[in-house]
C-alpha cells in the first residue's frame, strides 16, 4: 500500500488525515489484484481508521461513507483470511451507516437520487456480508436479514443497478428455499427473476448477441423447474419449457452454453412427459439432446477435445435413456435400437479409465435386455450379457478398496443382474453352461456383498432359484438340496449378521423354501419334505399373521399339486376349503390377493369338474370369473380378467361347438372392455382376441359379418403394432388367413392379393427380424405431408402450427411463408363442410396476422384481412362456439392493423358479446380488455363501454375461481389498472357518476364478493322465508369454499384450501372447481328468483350511483383516482352531483416516488429509533412527503371543500386509489423543522378513510341495537413489546374490571381471542403486525404460538363489533410492493369486513412508546360523557385530537402521522 509509511505513525489527529487514509483504501479497493489485504499495513490502516471514527460527530456527513469503506475492506479481508470477527464488524458498520441519513452538505452528494442509490448500495453490500457470514457460520438468521436488505435495496435501486440486485435477491431466496422448502420463497424468487428477464430484453449493440438475455431466460427455466420438482405444478414445467426454448433461440449457434441449455430443456421436457404422459414432450426431449450432440460434434464450439468428449458421452447416454423410456411407453422397437447405439456412442467418447465406465456399460446392457424382451432376438440378450460382464470387469479392475462397502454393493448388484440374464438365456436356448455361470455369478455376488447388506436374503433366493433351474435341467438332487440350503440361509441370516429384522424378507424366504421342499417331495416322495413345506406356510403365518390368507392360498396350491401327483380327490376338496377360508380372511381392500384366491378357486373347480361332472362346479368357476371381471372394472387388472373369462367361455365353446352362446358372451365382453381400455398393449391383445373369436364364430356360423369383424380387428391390430414387434408376423398370418376365407366367400382377387402380400411380409419379418434405421422424424414428417392424400390435412395443419411457433420465437420470414403454404394446401384437401376446415382457417388467420404484424407490408395486411374475413364467413350456419369468437377477434385485429379502427371496434364488441354467450369468462375478459385498451389508445367512443364491460366480466371471472387465493392471484395478473382506467375514461367524457361507479365496481373486489355472501336478508325473510334461508345456506357454503381451510362446514364435501395459490395438497383442484361451479350456479339461480319478487329487482346488482351517494350522508367523501392518463379528485356530496377537482397529470409517477420515499423514511426512522441516533431530515423524509401531498393533492381538495362551504373542523372521508391509499393524506401540510404545522389538512378537517363507498354504507347500516355499553377486549404481547404493560395500565385506569378483559403474553392465543371478540364490541390490539406480500391472507397479528391471520379474521362473524384499536405496525396499509393495492388487503379492512364499524390503525411502523400515550388520549375522549354514552362515531375525532396532542408535544412527524381512522 502506498500509505504504508503513514499507517505506523501516531494516531490520527485530524479529519483530513482520516479522509486521506480512506481515499487510499478506496483506491486500493478498486485495484485488488495489486493489494494483498492480508498484509500488516492493511491491519494498521484499519486500526487507524477505526480510531479516526471518533473524530466524526454522529451527524457528520463523512461518517456513513467512512463506515461503508471500512466495511468493504473488512469484507475483502474476511474473504482472504476467513476471520469471523472481520465479517461481524463489517455487518455492524454497515448497519450503523444505514441509521445515519446521507447528506449533501459537503458537496459529495448532488441530489436525492444519488442518496437513494447510496442507500441501495449499502443495503446490497450488507446483504452480501450477511450471506458471507451465513456461508461461514451457517446461521440462517443471516439469510433472513440478507433477504430483507436485498428487498429494500431493490425497491430503491436505480435502473442501472436493478438487474444485479435482482440476481442477488433471487440467489439468496433460492438458498433459503432449498434449506426450508417454503413455497413463498421460490415464488418470490421467480417473481423477481421474471423482472430480471424483462430488464434483459433490450436490443444488443451492433455486433453483440442476445447471449445475456438467453442466460436470464435459462435461469428462469431453472427456477421454474426447481419449483415444479418440489410442488408438482404442471404450469411451472410448461413455462420452464418455453423459457428454455426462448433462451436457446436467442443463443448464438457457436456459444459454448448451447449444449447445456439444450440439456436443460431436454430434462424439463422429460419431466413434462413424466407428469402428463404426452409423447410430444418426450419427443421434444429426444430432439433437444440430439441437437446438443450435433452442436458438440460439428467442432464449432470453443471447447477443448477432452471437454467435448466428456459432454458427448453424457448427452449420448441421456439420449439412450430417453429413447429407452419412449420404447417402454409406446413400444417402438426402433427407439430401443437407437438407444443401444447411443449408449455405444457414449462409450466411444468415454476414456477407458473413466470411473463411470461400468455404469455406462450397465445401461447399455439393460437397454439390450429390453430390446430382447421386445423383439425376442437372442443376440440382444447375448449383447446384454457381454456388456454386463465388461462392466463387472471394469469394476474388478478398478482396485476397489476393501472397506468401500458402497462399491462392493454396486459390484454385487451387477453380478446378481448378470445371473438373472444368464438364467433367462438358459430358459430360451437351454445351454447348461449359462446355468453354471449364473450360479457362479450369484455366488460371487454374495461374496462381494457386505455382511450387513439388506440385499443378502434376496441374493440368496436368486441363487436358490438358479440351483432349482439346474436341478430341473439335469435332475441332480444335490442342486435342489443346494437351493434348499440357500433358502434356509436366507431365513437364518435375517435376524443375524447385523441385518435388521425384515418380516417381509422372512416371509418371502419361507415361501420360497416351502416351494423348494414341495418340489423335492415331488422328486423323492418324502412326506417329510411336504410336511416341512406346509410348516413353512404356517411359519409364514406366524411371522406375519396379517397375511394368513395368503399362506392359506399357498397351502391350497400345495394340496392341488399333491393331487396332481397322487390323484387324491380329497386334496382338491381341501384345497377348495383352504381357498374359501383364505377368501373369508382376506381384507376387502386387498383386492389383488382376493382376485388371486378366487382365480385359484376357479382353477380347482375346473379340476373338480373333470371327475365330478357336476354342472354346479363348472357354473361356479364361470361365475367366479364373471365376478372377477365385474369387480376389477376400472382397474389395471380388468383386461386380464376379461381375457381369462373369454378363454373360459371359449373352452366351453370348444367342448360344445354347436352352442354359440358362450362365444357370443365372450365377444360381448371384449367389445365392452375395448371401449374403455384405450390404446395400450391390453387394447391390442384384447382386439386380437376379439378377432380370433370372430373368426372362430365365422367358422361355425358362416356369417360374413363375423368375418368382416375379424378382418377389421386384425387390420387395426397391425396398425397399432410396430412392424418390428415380435408378434407382428403372427398378426399378419391371422389377417392372411381371414382374407383367404373372404376370397373363397366372394372370389375377390383383392382379398387373395392381400392375403399373399400379408403372408410374404410375415415370412420376411420372421426371417429377418431386423428393421432399417429410421430417418430423422422431421424428415419423415415432411415427406408424409408432401403426399396429396385427402386424409393428410391434419398432419399438414399440425406441422404448420409447429412452424408458426418457431416463427413466433425466431421471426424467420421463411417459416411464416411455409406455414401459410401448408395451411392453404390443407384447406384444399379438406372436404367442404368438414369441421377440420374451421380449425385450419383459424390457424391460417393466426399465421397471417403474425406475419403482417412483423413484416409491416401492406400486401400482408390485405392478405390477413381476407383470410380473417373468410374465417368468420365459414361459421355461417354453424353453431357458435369459442372458435367462432376467436375468428371475430382475429378479424378485429386485422382491421386494427390495417388502420380501420371503426370496423375494428365493431368486431371487438361483437366478439365480446358472442363470447359472453359461448366462451369462458376469462376469454371474454381478455377480449374486453383488448377492446378497451385499444379503444382508449385510439380515442374511440367505445372505450368507456369496453372498460365497463371488462369490469362486469372481471366479476364473472372471480365467480368461476374457487378460492380466495386464486381470485387474488387472478387480480394480481389482470386488474392492476382497470378501475382507474375506466374512471379516468368516464371523467374524460364528463360522466362523473359512471366514474364513481367504475371505481366502486373495480376495487376491493374480494371484500365485495365476501360481503355479498353476508348480505342482510331481513327484508327478504319477511317476503319469502324459504328463499331467504336457501340463499343464506348457499352463501355460507360459498364463503366456506372461498376462505376456510376447515375440513367440513354445513354439509359440503371437505375441501382443503391452501394459503398459496394453486396448491396441490388435499382434495383435487378439479373437485374444488366442481363444487364452486355447482354452488355458483345455484347462487345465481336463487338471485334470479329473488329479483322476480316485488321490490327486489336490483338485489345484489352493481350498486347504482344514488345508493353510492348515500355514503356522503354524514360528510363529503373524497375519491382520488390516480391513473396514468389523468388524475382527479371527486368530492361526493349527499344531494348534489360530484364535484371534480383536476389534479396534476404526473400524479401517478409522483405517488410511486413518494411510496418509495416512505419506505426509506420508515426504515431510517425505525433504525434511528432503535439505535438512538439523532438524525437530520432529508428531502424525502416524512416532512417532505407531507409537503408534496399537500401541494399536489390535498390543498386543491381543501380549497374546493372551503368553496363548497364545508365547515372547518368537520369530518371528511378519504377514498384514494392505488398506492395513494398507503400515504398520509390526513396529515398533509407544510411543517417547519420542529414539526410545527404551518398550513395543512389537520388544522382544517377531521379525516377518516374508507376502502370503498359500500363498506362505509354497510358500516353505518349495521349499528348495534339496544347495547348497554361497550365492553373492551385488550390483546397484547408485553413479552416482546415492553410498553404494552404500561398501555394496559392506562386502560385499567379508564375501564372497570367488569368492562375490560385483558389477554396478554401466553394468554393471547388466536382461538381464545376470536371467542372473546364475540361478546366484546370494542377491541384493542397492542402487538406486532405482520405483512406477507406473497400470501396476503397470511398477514395478521403476531400472538402467542399462532398468528391471528387476516384469513382468520375474515372467517369471524362478529355481530356486536363496533370499535377496533389496532396498535400494531402496518395495520391499515397493505404491503408496499403489493400488485393489488386497490384490493385493500389490510388488517383494518378485515376488521371492518367482519363487523367493526370504526378502526384505528397505522400506515407504517409505530413506536412502542407511543402506544400508551395515544391510547390514553383516545379513550379519554371516547369516555368523556361516560361509558354508557360512549359513541363509536366519536372515534375519528378522538384519533384526531390524540394525534394533535402528540404533535403539540413535539413528537416527531413520522410517529404521530402513522395513525389513521377507518370507518364511520
UniProtKB/TrEMBL annotation:
Keyword Isomerase: no
GO cellular component, one term: anaphase-promoting complex
Coiled-coil regions, chain positions: none
Domain CHAT: residue ranges: 1185-1463
Record key words, sorted: TPR repeat
Similarity comment: family membership: Belongs to the APC3/CDC27 family.
PANTHER family, alphabetized: CELL DIVISION CYCLE 16,23,27 (PTHR12558), CELL DIVISION CYCLE PROTEIN 27 HOMOLOG (PTHR12558:SF13)
Name this polypeptide is given: CHAT domain-containing protein
Organism: Hermanssonia centrifuga
Amino acid at each position: 500500500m502506498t500509505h504504508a509509511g503513514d499507517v505506523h505513525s501516531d494516531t490520527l489527529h485530524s479529519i483530513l488525515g482520516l479522509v486521506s487514509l480512506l481515499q487510499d483504501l478506496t483506491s486500493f479497493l478498486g485495484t485488488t489484484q495489486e493489494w494483498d489485504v492480508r498484509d500488516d499495513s492493511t491491519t494498521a490502516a484499519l486500526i487507524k481508521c477505526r480510531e479516526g471514527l471518533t473524530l466524526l460527530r454522529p451527524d457528520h456527513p463523512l461518517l456513513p461513507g467512512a463506515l461503508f469503506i471500512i466495511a468493504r475492506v473488512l469484507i475483502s479481508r474476511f474473504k482472504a483470511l476467513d476471520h469471523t470477527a472481520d465479517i461481524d464488524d463489517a455487518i455492524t458498520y454497515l448497519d450503523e451507516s444505514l441509521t445515519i441519513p446521507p447528506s449533501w452538505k459537503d458537496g459529495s452528494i448532488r441530489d436525492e437520487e444519488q442518496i437513494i442509490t447510496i442507500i441501495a448500495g449499502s443495503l446490497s453490500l450488507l446483504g452480501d456480508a450477511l450471506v458471507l457470514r451465513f456461508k461461514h457460520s451457517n446461521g440462517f438468521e443471516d439469510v433472513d436479514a440478507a433477504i430483507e436488505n436485498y428487498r429494500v435495496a431493490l425497491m430503491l435501486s436505480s435502473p442501472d443497478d436493478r438487474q444485479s440486485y435482482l440476481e442477488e435477491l433471487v440467489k439468496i431466496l433460492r438458498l433459503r428455499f432449498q434449506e426450508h422448502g417454503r413455497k413463498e420463497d421460490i415464488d418470490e424468487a421467480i417473481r423477481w427473476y421474471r423482472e430480471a428477464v424483462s430488464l434483459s430484453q433490450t436490443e444488443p449493440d451492433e455486433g453483440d448477441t442476445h447471449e445475456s438475455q438467453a442466460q436470464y431466460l435459462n435461469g428462469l427455466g431453472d427456477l421454474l423447474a426447481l419449483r415444479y420438482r418440489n410442488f408438482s405444478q404442471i404450469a411451472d414445467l410448461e413455462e420452464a419449457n418455453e423459457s428454455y426454448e426462448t433462451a436457446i433461440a436467442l443463443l448464438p449457434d457457436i456459444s459454448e452454453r448451447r449444449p447445456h441449455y439444450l440439456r436443460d430443456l431436454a430434462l424439463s421436457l422429460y419431466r413434462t412427459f413424466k407428469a402428463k404422459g404426452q409423447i410430444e414432450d418426450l419427443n421434444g426431449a429426444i430432439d433437444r439432446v440430439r441437437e446438443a450432440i450435433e452442436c458438440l460434434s460439428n467442432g464449432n464450439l470453443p471447447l477443448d477435445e477432452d471437454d467435448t468428449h466428456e459432454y458427448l458421452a453424457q448427452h449420448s447416454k441421456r439420449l439412450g435413456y430417453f429413447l429407452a423410456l419412449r420404447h417402454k411407453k409406446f413400444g417402438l422397437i426402433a427407439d430401443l435400437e437407437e438407444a443401444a447405439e447411443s449408449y455405444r456412442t457414449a462409450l466411444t467418447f468415454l476414456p477407458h479409465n473413466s470411473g463411470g465406465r461400468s455404469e455406462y456399460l450397465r445401461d447399455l446392457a439393460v437397454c439390450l435386455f429390453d430390446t430382447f424382451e421386445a423383439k425376442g432376438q437372442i443376440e440382444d440378450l447375448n449383447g446384454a450379457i457381454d456388456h454386463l460382464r465388461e462392466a463387472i470387469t471394469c469394476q474388478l479392475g478398478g482396485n476397489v478398496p476393501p472397506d468401500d462397502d458402497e462399491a462392493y454393493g454396486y459390484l454385487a448388484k451387477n453380478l446378481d443382474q448378470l445371473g438373472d440374464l444368464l438364467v433367462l438365456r438358459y430358459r430360451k436356448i437351454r445351454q447348461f453352461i449359462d446355468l453354471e455361470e449364473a450360479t457362479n455369478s450369484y455366488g460371487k455376488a454374495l461374496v462381494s456383498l457386505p455382511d450387513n447388506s439388506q440385499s443378502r436374503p434376496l441374493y440368496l433366493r436368486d441363487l436358490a432359484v438358479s440351483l432349482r433351474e439346474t436341478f430341473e435341467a439335469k435332475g441332480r438332487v444335490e442342486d435342489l438340496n443346494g437351493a434348499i440350503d440357500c433358502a434356509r440361509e436366507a431365513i437364518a441370516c435375517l435376524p443375524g449378521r447385523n441385518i435388521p429384522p425384515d418380516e417381509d424378507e422372512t416371509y418371502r424366504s419361507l415361501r420360497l423354501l416351502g416351494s423348494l421342499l414341495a418340489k423335492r417331495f415331488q422328486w423323492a416322495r418324502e412326506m417329510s419334505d411336504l410336511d416341512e413345506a406346509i410348516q413353512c406356510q404356517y411359519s409364514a403365518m406366524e411371522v406375519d399373521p396379517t397375511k394368513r390368507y395368503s399362506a392359506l392360498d399357498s397351502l391350497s396350491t400345495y394340496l392341488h399339486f399333491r393331487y396332481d401327483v397322487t390323484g387324491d380327490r380329497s386334496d382338491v376338496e381341501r384345497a377348495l376349503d383352504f381357498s374359501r377360508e383364505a377368501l373369508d380372511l382376506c381384507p376387502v381392500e386387498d383386492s389383488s390377493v382376493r382376485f388371486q384366491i378366487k382365480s385359484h378357486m376357479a382353477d380347482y373347480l375346473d379340476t373338480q369338474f373333470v371327475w365330478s361332472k357336476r354342472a354346479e362346479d363348472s357354473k361356479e368357476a364361470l361365475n367366479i370369473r364373471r365376478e372377477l371381471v365385474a369387480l376389477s372394472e376400472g382397474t389395471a387388472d380388468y383386461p386380464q380378467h376379461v381375457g381369462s373369462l373369454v378363454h373360459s367361455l371359449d373352452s366351453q365353446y370348444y367342448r360344445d361347438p354347436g352352442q354359440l352362446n358362450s362365444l357370443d358372451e365372450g365377444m360381448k365382453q371384449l367389445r365392452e372392455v375395448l371401449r374403455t381400455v384405450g390404446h395400450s398393449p391390453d387394447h391390442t391383445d384384447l382386439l386380437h382376441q376379439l378377432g380370433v373369436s370372430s373368426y372362430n364364430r365365422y367358422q361355425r356360423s358362416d356369417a360374413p359379418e363375423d368375418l368382416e369383424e375379424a378382418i377389421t380387428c386384425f387390420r387395426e391390430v397391425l396398425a397399432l403394432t410396430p412392424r418390428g414387434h415380435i408378434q407382428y408376423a403372427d398378426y399378419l398370418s391371422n389377417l392372411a388367413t381371414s382374407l383367404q376365407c373372404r376370397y373363397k366367400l366372394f372370389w375377390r382377387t383383392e382379398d387373395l392379393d392381400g392375403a399373399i402380400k400379408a403372408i410374404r411380409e410375415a415370412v420376411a419379418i420372421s426371417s429377418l427380424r431386423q428393421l432399417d434405421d429410421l430417418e430423422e422424424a422431421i424428415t419423415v414428417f415432411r415427406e408424409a405431408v408432401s403426399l396429396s392424400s385427402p386424409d393428410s390435412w391434419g398432419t399438414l395443419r399440425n406441422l404448420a402450427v409447429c412452424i408458426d411457433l418457431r416463427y413466433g420465437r425466431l421471426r424467420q420470414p421463411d417459416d411464416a411463408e411455409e406455414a401459410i403454404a401448408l395451411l392453404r394446401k390443407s384447406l384444399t384437401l379438406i372436404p367442404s363442410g368438414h369441421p377440420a376446415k374451421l380449425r385450419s382457417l383459424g390457424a391460417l388467420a393466426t399465421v397471417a396476422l403474425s406475419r403482417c404484424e412483423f413484416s409491416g407490408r401492406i400486401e400482408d395486411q390485405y392478405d390477413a384481412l381476407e383470410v380473417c374475413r373468410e374465417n368468420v364467413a365459414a361459421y355461417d350456419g354453424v353453431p357458435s362456439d369459442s372458435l367462432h369468437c376467436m375468428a371475430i377477434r382475429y378479424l378485429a385485429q386485422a382491421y386494427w392493423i390495417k388502420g380501420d379502427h371503426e370496423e375494428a371496434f365493431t368486431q371487438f364488441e361483437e366478439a365480446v358479446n358472442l363470447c359472453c354467450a359461448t366462451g369462458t369468462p376469462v376469454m371474454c375478459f381478455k377480449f374486453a380488455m383488448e377492446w378497451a385498451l385499444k379503444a382508449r389508445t385510439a380515442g374511440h367512443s367505445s372505450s368507456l363501454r369496453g372498460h365497463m364491460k371488462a369490469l362486469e366480466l372481471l366479476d364473472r371471472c372471480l365467480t368461476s375461481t374457487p378460492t380466495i387465493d386464486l381470485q387474488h392471484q387472478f387480480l394480481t395478473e389482470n386488474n392492476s389498472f382497470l378501475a382507474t382506467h375506466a374512471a379516468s375514461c368516464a371523467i374524460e367524457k364528463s360522466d362523473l357518476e359512471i366514474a364513481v361507479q367504475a371505481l366502486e365496481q373495480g376495487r376491493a373486489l374480494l371484500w365485495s364478493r365476501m360481503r355479498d355472501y353476508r348480505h342482510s336478508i331481513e327484508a327478504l325473510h319477511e317476503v319469502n322465508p324459504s328463499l331467504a334461508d336457501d340463499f343464506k345456506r348457499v352463501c355460507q357454503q360459498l364463503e366456506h369454499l372461498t376462505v376456510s381451510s376447515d375440513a367440513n362446514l354445513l354439509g359440503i364435501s371437505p375441501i382443503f384450501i391452501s394459503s398459496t395459490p394453486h396448491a396441490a395438497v388435499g382434495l383435487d383442484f378439479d373437485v374444488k372447481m366442481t363444487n364452486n361451479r355447482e354452488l355458483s350456479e345455484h347462487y345465481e339461480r336463487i338471485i334470479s328468483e329473488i329479483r322476480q319478487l316485488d321490490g327486489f329487482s336490483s338485489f345484489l346488482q352493481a350498486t347504482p350511483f344514488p345508493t353510492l351517494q348515500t355514503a356522503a350522508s354524514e360528510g363529503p367523501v373524497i375519491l382520488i383516482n390516480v391513473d396514468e392518463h389523468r388524475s382527479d379528485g371527486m368530492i361526493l356530496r349527499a344531494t348534489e352531483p360530484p364535484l371534480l377537482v383536476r389534479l396534476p397529470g404526473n400524479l401517478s409517477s409522483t405517488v410511486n416516488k413518494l411510496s418509495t420515499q416512505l419506505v426509506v423514511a420508515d426504515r431510517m426512522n425505525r433504525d434511528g429509533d432503535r439505535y438512538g441516533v439523532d438524525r437530520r431530515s432529508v428531502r424525502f423524509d416524512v416532512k417532505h412527503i407531507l409537503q408534496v401531498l399537500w401541494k399536489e393533492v390535498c390543498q386543491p381538495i381543501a380549497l374546493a371543500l372551503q368553496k363548497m362551504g364545508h365547515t372547518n373542523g368537520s369530518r371528511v372521508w378519504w377514498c384514494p386509489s392505488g398506492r395513494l391509499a398507503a400515504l398520509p393524506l390526513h396529515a398533509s401540510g407544510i411543517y417547519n423543522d420542529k414539526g410545527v404545522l404551518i398550513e395543512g389538512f389537520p388544522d382544517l378537517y377531521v379525516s377518516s378513510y374508507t376502502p370503498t363507498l359500500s363498506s362505509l354504507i354497510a358500516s353505518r347500516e349495521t349499528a348495534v341495537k339496544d347495547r348497554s355499553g361497550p365492553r373492551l377486549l385488550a390483546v397484547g404481547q408485553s413479552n416482546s413489546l415492553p410498553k404494552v404493560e404500561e398501555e394496559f395500565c392506562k386502560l385499567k385506569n379508564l375501564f372497570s374490571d367488569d368492562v375490560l378483559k385483558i389477554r396478554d403474553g401466553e394468554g393471547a392465543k388466536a382461538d381464545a381471542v376470536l371467542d372473546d371478540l364475540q361478546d366484546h364490541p370494542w377491541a384493542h390490539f397492542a402487538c406486532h403486525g405482520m405483512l406477507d406480500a406473497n400470501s396476503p391472507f397470511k398477514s395478521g397479528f403476531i400472538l402467542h404460538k399462532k398468528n391471528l391471520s387476516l384469513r382468520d379474521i375474515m372467517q369471524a362473524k362478529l355481530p356486536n363489533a363496533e370499535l377496533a384499536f389496532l396498535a400494531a405496525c402496518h395495520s391499515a396499509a397493505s404491503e408496499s410492493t403489493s400488485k393489488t393495492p386497490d384490493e385493500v388487503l389490510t388488517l383494518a379492512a378485515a376488521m371492518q369486513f367482519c363487523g367493526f364499524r370504526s378502526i384505528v390503525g397505522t400506515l407504517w411502523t409505530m413506536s412502542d412508546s407511543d402506544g400508551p400515550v395515544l391510547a390514553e388520549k383516545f379513550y379519554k375522549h371516547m369516555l368523556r360523557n361516560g361509558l354508557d354514552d360512549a359513541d363509536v362515531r366519536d372515534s375519528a375525532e378522538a384519533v384526531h385530537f390524540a394525534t394533535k396532542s402528540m404533535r403539540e408535544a413535539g413528537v416527531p412527524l413520522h410517529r404521530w402521522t402513522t395513525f389513521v381512522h377507518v370507518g364511520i
